[in-house]
Write a structure and sequence with these properties.
Rossmann fold, alpha/beta, eight-stranded mixed β-sheet, 22% strand
Length: 347
Amino acid sequence: MKKKNVIGLLASNGTTFSLPSKTITIKTEKDVFGLLEYFPEIALICSIKPLLFKSKSPNNLMTFDWITIARLISTNQNDLTGFVLINDLATIIQTASALSFLLSHFNKPVVCTGLNKLEDDNKLPSNSLIKSEFLGTKANLINAFQVATMPNCEVSLMFGNQLIRANRAFRSTENTISAFSCLRMEALGKIDFGIKLNENSLRQKPGTKIIPDFDDRVQVVYLYPGMSTNLLFSQTSANTKALIIQSAGAPLAASYFNELSSIAKSGRRLVFRDILFDLTMKNSLQNKFAQENLEIATINNMTLESTIIKTMLALAQTKTFAEFNEFLDRDLAGEIAPVAAKTEVML
């Protein structure tokens, strides 16, 4: 007789589910099994082992929470088939991306999913809204547990009708049930009448092991055409150790270079990210930085979330700019997306 799959269910204390008839806040294992009574289909898929962890901010998990989750998974990996993490929709993409790096060497599925929060635009009565959210959450959970029993070594996001790699995910601006889109790759799996994994997209083997050490003193500023240097850098904190300049096709004018040089010389790392850049544009900008003796890393192949997480890791684990730059350029967990050589714009 085939042994039943056992899946670890990860949730922080204080995780709350709004059900049609009541609200359940997870504090103990008893609460987990009480919640699962509302999703009887899961019992047909696998057995559940609750893996609860304490967090100071359950709805906004931080670097120390990410490390706690990764260690929980590592400690229980020999006893379980896979893992499902339940988290709030607003912050799950950061947590999932961080786990993809911390568990880059892992060879079992880690599926992140959460509450299917809908925008309350007053078109639905409150009870109808709760029921709709419940049905979406139910589908997310059932599909996540099913994927966690399948052979793959991905840290993924399961929302709506698709499964996507965590460190390639970004919030979708379209009004879709999936909530997320995937940067320059096909989904890992699609949900139709069943779940079909895309073998061509799945990582074939684990990557290298990454030290679980973050430096979260990272700040993001947004560059828009015509913005003055005073405005661009006026909000930069003195405590910032790495500054990510986020652009979308705006040129980095020479007028910024003096300010950037001062920031770099103060010991802070600089990262310029523009997802619209092709390889030719990136190389041209890097040559300009070299001519000006500016130590600025250039990113055009990662989501903003992965860029932030990876910068936190690089800050903690490198000493020189060369090491920092090499760390960002290295594909650690499938986060690097293909980039067009010239002219073609890929989003």
